[in-house]
Amino acid sequence: MALDRLVADRQAVTVLDVAREAGVSVSTVSRIINGTVKVSEDKRLAVEDAIRRLEFKPNLFARSLKKGTTMTIGVLIQDVESPFFTRVMCGLEEGVLDTGYALIIVSGHWDAAEEAERIKLLMARRVDGLVILTGHLSDAQIAEFAQMQPIVVTGRKIDAENVRSVFFSNEEGGYLATRHLVSLGHRRIAFIAGPPTHSDAISRFEGYQQALAEAGIVLDPALIVQGDFKENGGVFAMNRLLDSGAPFTAVFAANDQTALGARMVLSRRGIRVPDDVSLVGFDDLPTSAYLTPPLTTIRQPLFEVGQHCASLLLGMLGQQGKAIALPPLELVVRETTRRV
Amino acid sequence: MALDRLVADRQAVTVLDVAREAGVSVSTVSRIINGTVKVSEDKRLAVEDAIRRLEFKPNLFARSLKKGTTMTIGVLIQDVESPFFTRVMCGLEEGVLDTGYALIIVSGHWDAAEEAERIKLLMARRVDGLVILTGHLSDAQIAEFAQMQPIVVTGRKIDAENVRSVFFSNEEGGYLATRHLVSLGHRRIAFIAGPPTHSDAISRFEGYQQALAEAGIVLDPALIVQGDFKENGGVFAMNRLLDSGAPFTAVFAANDQTALGARMVLSRRGIRVPDDVSLVGFDDLPTSAYLTPPLTTIRQPLFEVGQHCASLLLGMLGQQGKAIALPPLELVVRETTRRV
DNA sequence: TTTTCAATTGAAAACGTTGTCAGCTTGACC
DNA sequence: GGTCAAGCTGACAACGTTTTCAATTGAAAA
After folding, report:
1. Could you tell me the distance in Å between the CA of residue A30 and the C1' of nucleotide C20?
2. pLDDT tens digits for B250-297?
3. Does the pLDDT at position A28 exceed 80?
């Protein structure tokens, strides 16, 4: 009795067992599973029944070995704990749902060497495709990796064989945020930057400069301080800014986490937001709407970015992924900004 | 020339190529790679050199197929976006670093059926082990899954073959938080609960009750409102609580996200924290220290929990994982609580 | 010098699939 | 009735490893 075998040794139900149980050959079983060739109705039924009875699960590794495909997608993120990445991951996860693909996620921790290391690890696992969410790898490196398997990369534009970029204008976001402050009458607008080598951070800074220039405000270097895209960077930056004594009425932080740190320092020093200082972030993280007061910020459609990445990659892998339209960047005005 | 072959067809460097290049048999190459049997020094050198020159990477799938092991660990979380899970994942990630194991992460979204579904997916991929971070699966289900592969589960105590639990007392945490409020003179302490079926949530409630009983305070059902462990649940709960008119001077929220939502409502209604109402959370999420004011909460050593899970599972898989000591739960007093 | 034995090594058989190839039916057509 | 094509089917060779098993070697022992 086949079920005994199942109980005795849970691991070992193979296509051979199914074939025996259904009284056909292994080839036929394989054909039914993959639907490659038509088989007679009675055998199909017998096999499907046997599969169900034996709870047969094809060994993915044997299959991978034969077909050269692993049904696995590698995802390089920078930090598992960053809400930015997890939001995108959420979209990715949704995007590959029910496609049979699984995600292997690795973190590069904002370090080009570590990123390359992790990608090599993924390649050793023969992932079918790669999603690279920002980071410090050079375009050339990515193009090289793309010789091995298709890649979708976010946060930059790469023109290379086998690479698709999901890209949207951080510059425009920086511009939107700054223009909003300008339109409220602010003229001394501080900027807490992101990591100096980070392309998103650079673009946001460019948007800031552009809005300033457009309003005829000369950029005051004393109002530019360095952050690191994390809460603590915001804390340091805001302290430095306040200690410098340079007067300002508004702050544009390069991301929400930075804004959070900055806001804490302001509050600690008795500076009210938005009464004394207006504050704008960037990202619209899930928690940002629940801060006190709720943070004015630039909304990036991160979930959709994830979905879109999945869809693009699936497309490159020959699967028909559902097309996702990327909503534009959007200024979300909440309660941390006020007319001066 | 071997390198030509490499360039022409990047995928296909096999152990056979290496053997040919080094002038030995495939068996010898395999032996050198796995270190199973001693081979002569000169051949070892030749093979190692060939491996390097050809950039040979063993095909993990062929190996898995033969050895029956996949060097993959499945992780069931509930929500990629929850800071709670990502913190633990961080520890997990660190724990398996350089062990050759990779993590496949799936989300159950707090739904027992979906959780079981995802676990079956992981099992179809023949993961070597499983880490289950809380959730709604029954103990019996987990014990059954454990017949297939070792499991580490958090947030509950399961006595079963092939299962290890990482468990620490949410009850004690609830007790600590409530006792802190009591010691500040509060007597009307509201509680915003978590999901009613969630074991962590239940334990925290029990701790709350215990501290109240110890202080001789009778529990007032009017002060207990339902949340869902997310920000929005905190918003609804706090609105309901305030609308009910029941007086209170302190709130214990079942987790930090809930506290965040509750705090926003308080602020919106002009109720000051901690001047009018004291607030305690649970989890000590990374952002909680940066709220305004910084949140008093119970710190769970989540990162260490992740490391510990990894270590336990690695142990069950026959790897010598480094032992991790789990720090105890801890009350972190910040600035949202004050003497009444 | 022969015998014994351990240390290395290579050939070949798995592991569980898929896909090619050839063989077997079956029915249609002349 | 014979021929053919078409439709199914099974045997078997891959896929790239690891792991027997047996053979070869060289050195040590007799």
Report:
1. 14
2. 999 999 999 999 999 999 999 999 999 999 999 999 899 999 999 999
3. yes
| Nearest CA distance, A246 vs chain B (angstrom) | 24
Fold category of B69-168+303-327 in CATH: Rossmann fold (3.40.50)
Residues of B in contact with A95 (CB under 8 A): none
- Cβ contact B34 with chain D strand, < 7 A: yes
- Chain A residue numbers touching B64 (CB-CB < 8 A): 61
Instruction: Provide CATH code, domain A70-168+303-326.
Output: 3.40.50.2300
Topology match between the domains B2-58 and B170-299: no
Nearest chain B CA: its distance from A223 CA (Å): 23
Residues B194-253: pLDDT tens digits?
Answer: 999 888 899 999 999 999 999 999 999 999 999 999 999 999 999 999 999 999 999 999
Do B292 and A83 count as a contact with CB atoms less than 8 A apart?
no
Q: Which residue is nearest to nucleotide D16 (CA to C1')?
A: B62
Q: Answer whether CATH 3.10.20.90 is correct for domain B2-58.
A: no
CATH 3.40.50.2300 fits B170-299, yes or no: yes
SS (H, E, C) chain B: CHHHHHHHCHHHCCHHHHHHHHCCCHHHHHHHHHCCCCCCHHHHHHHHHHHHHHCCCCCHHHHHHHHCCCCEEEEEECCCCCHHHHHHHHHHHHHHCCCCCEEEEEECCCCHHHHHHHHHHHHHCCCCEEEEECCCCCHHHHHHHCCCCCEEEECCCCCCCCEEEECCCHHHHHHHHHHHHHHCCCCCEEEEECCCCCHHHHHHHHHHHHHHHHCCCCCCHHHEEECCCCHHHHHHHHHHHHHHCCCCCEEEECCHHHHHHHHHHHHHCCCCCCCCCEEECCECCHHHHHCCCCCEEEECCHHHHHHHHHHHHHHHCCCCCCCCCCCCCEEECCCCCCCC
Size of interface A-B (CB pairs under 8 A): 114
pLDDT by residue (tens digit) across B322-339? 788 889 999 999 999 999
- Domain limits of chain A? 2-58, 70-168+303-326, 170-299
Interface test with B, best of A70, A77, A81 (most B CBs within 10 A): A81
Residue A203 binned pLDDT confidence (cut-offs 50, 70, 90): very high
Shortest distance, CA B66 to any CA of chain A (angstroms): 9
Taking CA atoms, what residue in B is nearest to A260? Answer: B290
